[in-house]
Known about the structure:
The chain is 27% helix and 23% strand. It is an alpha/beta fold.
Amino acid sequence: MxxxxxxxxxxxxxxxxxxxxxxxxxxxxxxVTDPPYNIASADRTTMKNGKPLSTMKAWGHWDxxxxxxxDVFLMQVISECYRILxxxxxxxxxTAREQNGFFIRQAMARGFTxxxxxxxxxxxxxxxxxxxxxxxxxxxxxYLTKGKPELFNFVSQAECKNVFHYANTHRKTQHPxxxxxxxxxxxxxxxxxxxxxxxxxxMGSGTTAMAAKELERRYLGFExxxxxxxxxxxxxxxxxxxxxxxxxx
Length: 249
Ligand SMILES: C[S@@+](CC[C@H](N)C(=O)[O-])C[C@H]1O[C@@H](n2cnc3c(N)ncnc32)[C@H](O)[C@@H]1O
């Protein structure tokens, strides 16, 4: 571990892996995160039909890896998350469906206990313009623990099913992959207690931080892009304005 101690209730503009390496072993109660899925194509990142995309549309640059690099990246995320979690602590991690088999095998090889897959079903998925495949209407979140789970605050039969339905209207910011606050709050409520430390290495618009704050948990996280970090900080201060970013991230 190197560098100054990281303080809770902060989001640092820092690479996630470097940031995670600065967190002590066995020190975190819960991790809730939504890393890049590696589904953006290289073209999608900057140009469309030969024209540069606006900053918000050109979001793919952080989501575009060579497949081998992506595997290494995921393994680093798994390894660091395992190291920093307290025994019994939980990891909730959204993953691309294409990656789930690889992800679960690697996580179990590292020592995680596989607990469940949680489906986030979109009530209003994007229409299919090409009409050449099924519309993409759900995302999956893996639920794992470091050994036997330390706690599971069962909320209700209705809320603790592994399928959750959400409409896109949950959005509070212009982050392209903002997750529903209520869903993240449920994960935090189920797998942590007041005052616990919740880490998100890929904060984006700060949904995990907001959820932790509203539930009186401490949070800590990282985000590389200046504009997203500004969104997250504004949100945490109480501004929910859907402001477009002005700078190329
Ligand atoms: C899928 S989004 C997370 C969205 C978030 N769940 C929300 O509700 O807003 C992933 C985020 O990780 C950030 N990111 C990508 N690579 C990163 C890295 N190496 N270190 C830190 N942040 C990174 C991206 O800028 C992006 O905002």
